[in-house]
Write a structure and sequence with these properties.
Length: 271
């Protein structure tokens, strides 16, 4: 038998939804057993809604800030940090290496790891709608646009997680290596609204993923036509036109993160 034949990997079939869901189920079980991780995944993203109870009832600017915070935290905690730590832990334990020698495809492994966190993020985002309405906020002007923004953001943060895993040596190190993405996601909502910023700097900050998520919430949910607006003026149809730039920003960041993750993916721990 030639060396080429001896080391040949058996051909594997196409992407299996059944196999992916089976793996995702076990990943979900592990998440549920980790009470701290589950709390961060389901409770922490909803924390910004508490400001609606403490502030003036029905205040649009407060509602926009709170809902945007829910969307960002849902992407950062149950998706980004959870996927990052799980992938790195299983890579270091050689779990991923062993599974790749069987029928499981790489795409199935990556999707299965991300699915529980994505499900938690989308669940908390959906729960935020009735909670915000009960707290005095108006119903979303364009709920489809809000849902699209939530879906794009979780895919983007999952891609960021796999990219960050490339230079994360251990699950403990993820606390440090995750900071650049957390800062990148936070700079838009917290810094972009400062009145002292110049227009060029404000425009540059608007291209960050966090600013794009924040803008989608303001346009899609509250129908605000500018960052300084405090009154709903946009109709359902008008929200689609103003949402073009933030949607493009999210798509570009997602594509960039996926491309970088694919190029730098490491399936085994560094020796």
């Amino acid at each position: 038998m030639s060396a080429t034949t001896a080391t040949k990997v058996p051909a594997r079939g196409g992407f299996s939804v059944t196999r992916t869901l089976h793996l995702a189920r076990w990943n979900a079980v592990l998440l549920v057993r980790n009470r701290l991780a589950l709390t961060y995944a389901l409770v922490m993203p909803l924390a910004p809604l508490l400001t609606l109870l403490a502030g003036e009832r029905g205040l649009t600017s407060l509602g926009a800030t709170a809902v945007a915070g829910v969307l960002l935290l849902a992407g950062l905690f149950p998706v980004f940090y959870n996927v990052l730590s799980q992938f790195v832990s299983r890579r270091d334990e050689l779990v991923l290496k062993r599974m790749r020698t069987g029928e499981t495809r790489d795409a199935e492994l990556l999707t299965a790891i991300a699915l529980p966190g994505v499900a938690c993020a989308l669940l908390t985002t959906a729960v935020a709608v009735p909670v915000a309405v009960v707290a005095g906020q108006d119903a979303p002007v364009n709920v489809l646009l809000f849902a699209l923004g939530a879906l794009l953001s979780v895919v983007m943060f999952a891609a960021f997680a796999y990219w960050t895993a490339a230079w994360t040596r251990s699950a403990e190190a993820a606390q440090l290596t995750s900071l650049p993405v957390i800062v990148l996601a936070s700079v838009g909502p917290f810094v972009g609204g400062l009145p002292s910023l110049s227009d060029p700097l404000r425009e540059a900050i608007s291209l960050t993923p966090g600013a794009a998520v924040n803008e989608l919430v303001r346009v899609g949910w509250f129908g605000l036509d500018s960052f300084d607006a405090t009154t709903t003026t946009l109709t359902f149809a008008e929200t689609w036109s103003l949402a073009g730039q933030p949607l493009v920003v999210l798509v570009v960041w997602t594509g960039l993160a996926l491309q970088l993750a694919q190029r730098s993916m490491r399936w085994e721990p560094r020796t």
